[in-house]
Amino acid sequence: MTKKDVASADERPGRRHQILAIAAQLFARKGYRGTSMRDIGEQAGVLGGSLYHHIKSKDALFVELHDAALDEAQGRIVAAIATRADPWDRLEAACACLLDIQLAPDSLTLPMMNDFREVPEAVRELLVARRDRFEGVFRELVDALPLPESIDPSIYRNLLLSQLNSAADWYRPGRLESGMIAAQIVTIFRHE
Amino acid sequence: MTKKDVASADERPGRRHQILAIAAQLFARKGYRGTSMRDIGEQAGVLGGSLYHHIKSKDALFVELHDAALDEAQGRIVAAIATRADPWDRLEAACACLLDIQLAPDSLTLPMMNDFREVPEAVRELLVARRDRFEGVFRELVDALPLPESIDPSIYRNLLLSQLNSAADWYRPGRLESGMIAAQIVTIFRHE
DNA sequence: CCTACCGATCGGTAGG
DNA sequence: CCTACCGATCGGTAGG
């Protein structure tokens, strides 16, 4: 037997992160309402109620996961475009990066999907606010493009983003690589 | 007082359709899990349990709405393309038609959205099967296009469909007409 | 981290 | 169409 009893509160520093990762995976697979605290507990090897030692509420847990996911995604995208100057190159790099994130199976990043209708209203407002900031990156990228006058930049940006975010709805891993999809999206959206 | 008591079973022929329309609206707004039988009953002016005189189960209700919505959508699209011969014209007509359906607020047609993750597995299989048939229409339309070799028709079709189906996620009525969106989508997706 | 529980809500049913 | 209920499940909590 170790110093601490096996059944006592586990305060190992990685424990909380472990639980967050499990929760993110379940939210990504089954949605907000489709994932119960007891489901998360089961994957973590504890009862649902025990999770409240590590988190405040299901709502707060989801918001934290969503915001952390967008922080990471935004960071990766900013890094990916930093080394490029041509507007089309920059857009292509951002698309490939976001698509890679959205198509990674059960990634910690996926919960940002458009679950928004499923979520309590108070939570939804927080998610929307964070997402709007995220989309600002793409607003700048699109506004820098030399688009033909027949294309409205605002609609173009919304179409492109919903395209990238909803790709996981039909993409099935294995058949083709995510880089292939990104290349096709950029080919289609490239107009001068 | 009329012959029938007000509180007795209402067998007016339009009643069932009325309930279906209410259910469709709620499913479209709040999703499958977010809509309870009691919610539907409340809008219909009865208790949740009373709905079971008209329907067999929540699952069956959702499947019926989804399939009827796709039947109607498919019919409208087939009619819209029937009068055109040019492949691009046909695709454009189909896109405008589907987008019009998907953007109609609270339309009976909206529940076909990609709620699929929210729904019980047995139900999901039925929905996917019906949706696959629906998408066959677009498969034919896309395969008839003279696309450049750099574009994969299968990816192109999936991208186009997810674009049309997810437009409701960001579109807000009033700011611009749905016809405007359709025109932009076709402009972007038109490559020769 | 568990036991044991709370009040709320869910889909659905029997019987009238 | 209602009353009155069923068993199941939910998020969350007190106390240890």
Give a structural overview:
The first copy, chain A, is built from 7 helices and no strands. Chain A has 192 residues and is mainly alpha-helical. In chain A, α4 (87-103) packs antiparallel against α7 (178-189). The longest helix of chain A is centred in the middle third of the chain and has 25 residues, at 58-82. Chain A is elongated. Chains A and B meet through α1, α6 and α7 of A and α6 and α7 of B. The structure holds a DNA duplex (16 and 16 nucleotides).
Can you describe this structure in just a few lines?
Chain A has seven helices and no strands.
Round the mean pLDDT of chain A to the nearest integer and report it.
Answer: 87
Share in helix of chain A: 55-70%
- Helix and strand string of chain A, N-terminal first? HHHHHHH
Number of strands of chain A: 0
- What portion of residues of chain A belong to β-strands? under 5%
Report how far the terminal alpha carbons of chain A are from each other: 70 Å
List its salient traits.
DNA-binding; homodimer; disordered N terminus; mainly alpha; 192 residues; elongated; 7 helices
List the helices and strands and how they pair.
The structure is a homodimer of 192-residue chains.
Chain A: H1 14-34, H2 37-44, H3 58-82, H4 87-103, H5 121-143, H6 153-166, H7 178-189
Helix pairs in contact in A: 1-2, 3-4, 3-5, 4-7, 5-6
The structure holds a DNA duplex (16 and 16 nucleotides).
